[in-house]
Design goal:
It is a single chain. The protein is α/β, with parallel strands linked by helices. The chain has twelve helices and five strands. Helices cover about 70% and strands about 10% of the residues. A five-stranded parallel β-sheet has the order 2-1-3-4-5, sandwiched between helices. Helix 9 crosses helix 11 and helix 11 runs antiparallel to helix 12.
Length: about 290
């Protein structure tokens, strides 16, 4: 027996009684090997607390919740709980509202006085299955996007070799030679990526470029290569996008692309300065050795 967990959000306790009765009275030919467990909240704030503490498969939400703002509510729920199927449960027969709810990501739309046991069970099962299939599709798309991004960055890394870095390449990768240091830099880069996202969204200034410059110099001191930068970026990107909804995951990919290219630029700049300084030192020594 498979149990689906449903969270109903409505200000009317009668809605809960009706939904619970429909699901319990549904014939076995409809439910098959399924059962439904329904929890109830009268406010969205309480529902969000419940969703944060307990697993639910579907959110059955009435847009009459006292603190609900309809479309904003649906969008917030989608962003905060991307795994959750959402079915709107309302008295309104407004087709425009139905379309709007589906456009922002709801998997279903039920009018209260039109449902019965069969329709409710069918709608919840369909919503859950659609959400699962959508997640599989999105994960596959995201995986392909990440693979393409990594291949592109590795190609860039192979072309950002200055004369001095070419002499240093051949050393083992940073993650292999200094795994603890590598993980510390990964953590720093992950924090910078979050700050960069906040900077873009909230229009604040965290001086990300200066912090990336310092990181580039740190990597240069460690004789890291652009391939090490790609390794750091790849690990952080995978961690950030693993449990994110598709929109947020795409934002990480886009923002991360700018960051990693900027960091590569600072690393290359460090090596150029290092090479110029080394060349000047050699010229001075040669001059002193050969002057009359």
């Amino acid at each position: 027996m498979i149990c689906f967990y449903v969270l109903l959000v409505t200000k009317n306790i009668e809605d809960y009684t009706q939904v619970d009765r429909f699901l319990n009275q549904a014939p076995s030919s409809v439910t098959r090997d399924l059962e439904f467990q329904v929890d109830y909240c009268d406010r969205l704030e309480a529902a969000i607390a419940q969703l944060s503490e307990k697993h639910f498969d579907v959110l059955l939400i009435s847009l009459n919740s006292p603190d609900s703002q309809a479309m904003e509510t649906l969008q917030n729920c989608q962003e905060r709980f991307p795994h959750l199927a959402i079915v709107v449960f309302t008295e309104s027969r407004d087709e425009t509202l139905r379309v709007q709810c589906l456009q922002v990501g709801a998997q279903g739309y039920l009018v209260k006085d039109q449902i019965d046991s069969k329709l409710l069970v069918y709608s919840l099962r369909l919503a859950i299955e659609q959400k699962r299939q959508l997640q599989v599709l999105q994960q596959n798309q995201l995986k392909r996007l990440q693979e393409q991004e990594i291949l592109s960055l590795r190609h860039i890394a192979d072309t950002v070799k200055t004369q001095i870095t070419a002499k240093l390449f051949g050393l083992s990768l940073l993650r292999e030679s200094s795994p603890e240091i590598f993980q510390e830099i990964v953590q720093q880069y992950a924090e910078l990526m979050d700050l960069s996202m906040e900077q873009r969204i909230y229009k604040v200034d965290y001086n990300i470029s200066e912090q990336l410059r310092n990181m580039g110099e740190q990597l240069g001191f460690l004789k890291a290569s652009p391939r090490d930068v790609v390794d750091i970026h790849t690990q952080v990107l995978k961690e950030k996008t693993q449990n994110s909804n598709p929109v947020k995951a795409q934002a990480y990919v886009s923002e991360g692309r700018l960051m990693v290219l900027e960091l590569m630029g600072y690393l290359a700049s460090y090596y150029r300065k290092y090479f110029i300084g080394l060349s000047k030192l050699n010229v001075t020594k040669n001059y002193q050795n050969f002057k009359p």
